[in-house]
């Protein structure tokens, strides 16, 4: 919901429960992607995380339950697709900290994947939800990588995010309307 001060509000999750962290942001992105697909604007999908199933409990045939599994390989980024004939690839993160986005929230193999996409001419970026402020930002991978490589800090300061990130507008059908920002940032 958009309020007069342009800030969105989100339900706060319990501090001890991290299992669903980022899920509301992911749900909003998924809804946006469905909207883009139905409007024939872009084809963007969440990448499945490859897992190897080790143990399955079969209390009865119709109720099989996976009881043990592990990740096959480190995954790359969360989403990829095509927009206006350009390959796009991005990682989505929800940040609950007030003053910065910690680099520990993004894995080194994901950073290297973003770097590779940029090197090969694709459009790579981060979508970042700053929960404390009810703000969503698109951060170009090139800008993120430049700051990350400078090793000035172990996090992106909120001030840096506000100055270098691009605010993402809210739209009912596309709650995280990042395509509108891509058009402006990349002249698409």
Verbal overview:
By secondary structure, this protein is of the alpha+beta class. The chain has one domain (23-185): Trna Endonuclease, Chain: A, domain 1 (3-Layer(aba) Sandwich), CATH 3.40.1350. The chain contains 5 helices and 10 strands. The protein has helices at residues 23-38, 108-119, 141-150, 158-164, 178-185, and strands spanning 42-46, 51-57, 65-71, 79-83, 86-95, 100-102, 123-130, 135-140, 155-157, 166-167. The strands form 3 sheets. Strands 1-4-5-7-8-10 form a 6-stranded mixed β-sheet, sandwiched between helices. It has a two-stranded antiparallel sheet with strand order 2-3. Strands 6-9 form a two-stranded antiparallel sheet. The protein starts with 22 loop residues before the first helix and ends with a helix. The relative contact order is 0.16.
SSE blueprint:
Blueprint: H1 23-38, E1 42-46, E2 51-57, E3 65-71, E4 79-83, E5 86-95, E6 100-102, H2 108-119, E7 123-130, E8 135-140, H3 141-150, E9 155-157, H4 158-164, E10 166-167, H5 178-185
Parallel strand pairs: 5-7
Antiparallel strand pairs: 1-4, 2-3, 4-5, 6-9, 7-8, 8-10
* Strands ordered across the widest β-sheet: 1-4-5-7-8-10
User: Compute the gyration radius: what is it?
Assistant: 18 Å
Report the CATH architecture. Answer: 3-Layer(aba) Sandwich
Report, as a whole number of angstroms, the end-to-end distance. 28 Å
| Tally of strands | 10
Q: Which residue ranges are poorly predicted, with pLDDT under 50 across at least 5 consecutive positions?
A: 9-22
Outline = globular
What is the top-level CATH class? Answer: Alpha Beta
Largest sheet: 6 strands, mixed
Q: How many discrete domains?
A: 1
Order of helices and strands: HEEEEEEHEEHEHEH
Q: Mean of residue pLDDT?
A: 85
